[in-house]
Amino acid sequence: MGRPREFRDEAAVEAAMQVFWEKGYEAATTQDLCERTGLGRGSLYNAFGSKHALYEQALRHYAATKAEAQLRMLDEPGPVKDRLRDLMLGVIDADMADPGRRGCLALNAAGEASGRTGAVAGLVRRQFDDLEQAIHRLVLVGQASGELSSERPALQVARAFQSAYYGLRVLAKVTDDRATLLDVVEGAIAAL
Amino acid sequence: MGRPREFRDEAAVEAAMQVFWEKGYEAATTQDLCERTGLGRGSLYNAFGSKHALYEQALRHYAATKAEAQLRMLDEPGPVKDRLRDLMLGVIDADMADPGRRGCLALNAAGEASGRTGAVAGLVRRQFDDLEQAIHRLVLVGQASGELSSERPALQVARAFQSAYYGLRVLAKVTDDRATLLDVVEGAIAAL
DNA sequence: TCCATTCTTTACAGGTGGGTACATAAATAG
DNA sequence: CTATTTATGTACCCACCTGTAAAGAATGGA
């Protein structure tokens, strides 16, 4: 009972996520969050408790939407190499189309000192682990079908690819040269 | 003429670099900088002008010391694969020995929104380019001597390795599992 | 010795940060 | 209709942030 919320929690978290994504945790102000969510300070603190708690919610929301979409992309049919290549090409398109060069929120969180301890570190680690597992499964499929060589352990291959993936996202932040990023993609695929 | 400085500029920049490295640009306060450098606010602002200008100096200092040391490591004699492997193994040792998990300052700078525009972005880009060139030279050497296959363009190989290198540094921030990181190393070397 | 110059110290300014208190509004249960 | 519960809006707190002003301390040169 009691007075009902005038907003959807998820919509507010989505808006907050955008703020943290653009500015990072430290640089984002509670005023930014109020403006973007459309909430007054009272409502925002009543609903989420603190800036940091809202940040954690935003990271969870990112995992459940953006990161999840990436993982689903890997489950589509077709050759394993094509799926992994499409994952990287999709990232290049998305990152270069974004004028703010926000990159990956989880990766940004890992970069800030506040993201290397406590609950945030756990959320980031989980997203990294999920990606590792998804790639690992895919490599196993490729090795089973004979598309990929089975000379090296699947987990090692998966981890090397994952690493190249994060490196790609880092590079996409500082370079405007698509050719550089495409070299990374072809290099990573050739290494499978 | 005039009253002489009571400190060495480089020592102050080194101390400031440590602060930015540990906390990031946004979270570092001018008070942190004063305490760590041992300077009063007046001296600090007189010498460096602003927090942001000092940040740029710190990045330059990082490039001239830490990053430069990495590049020199690549110039030592021996097989190309060994040199590139040692680069990565050195990073694993350094990153895991660091309780603060600070990682690479340039990479951290790229993660913060303030590091994606203006002078800071340029400084970061330059460090990335320097590493790309160093690896590229090394791959060319390896291909010329026959140690590495010449099937793929040296620049592509170099860029893929560089990408894995940055991915490794990202992963080193969130995982405590050395085996994961060693997989990345072996995967990246095998891809040469 | 006196001056111009540069550095150091201290105090402070103006603004902004995250967070809270409180009065008011909107709903339900009885 | 009243009591209770929950949400909203406003006003506010106070700690802290970056940057500056001003006065005193060292230097070199005339």
From TrEMBL, chains A, B:
Any one GO molecular-function label of the UniProt entry: DNA binding
Keywords: DNA-binding, Transcription, Transcription regulation
Domain of life: Bacteria
Annotated HTH tetR-type domain residues: 6-66
SUPFAM superfamilies hit by this protein: Homeodomain-like, Tetracyclin repressor-like, C-terminal domain
DNA-binding region: 29-48
Protein name per its UniProtKB record: TetR family transcriptional regulator
